Task: inverse folding
């Protein structure tokens, strides 16, 4: 996930710098709301949290990104849509192995996969926070 988000962030920065991305007030509002949710994701000590808590936070971040994309148009919607595509694996993860069987092909992620998703969201949050002045 992190490489895909890194590429999307690189493209977004280039579009913002070149003026290709024409930002609207609606974009700014969507970004502010999304940053509120992404700001809740922990930066440090995340590995100390139980897997279920980490997955809950990641799912909330995916949902908030989807809502921001759906309520946007233009470049912001395309950018967030690209990010959501990269974050799709998060929606297939479950915290507990075993149980009553895998629902809809869900899997238990490896610790590295969870960390990769968290790092990817950190990249997204950093772009939105630093570009917030342009947005």
Result:
């Amino acid at each position: 996930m992190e490489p895909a988000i890194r590429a999307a962030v690189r493209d977004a920065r280039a579009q913002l710098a070149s003026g290709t991305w024409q930002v609207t007030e609606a974009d700014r509002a969507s970004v502010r709301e999304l940053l509120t949710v992404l700001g809740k994701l922990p930066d440090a000590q995340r590995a100390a949290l139980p897997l279920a808590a980490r997955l809950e936070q990641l799912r909330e971040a995916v949902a908030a990104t989807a809502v921001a994309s759906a309520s946007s148009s233009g470049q912001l919607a395309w950018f967030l849509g690209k990010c959501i595509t990269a974050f799709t694996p998060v929606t297939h993860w479950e915290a507990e192995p075993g149980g009553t069987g895998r629902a809809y092909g869900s899997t238990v992620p490896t610790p590295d996969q969870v960390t990769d998703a968290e790092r990817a969201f950190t990249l997204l949050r950093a772009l939105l926070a630093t570009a917030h002045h342009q947005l």
Notes: The CA atoms of residues 52 and 95 lie 5 Å apart. DSSP finds five helices and no strands in the chain.
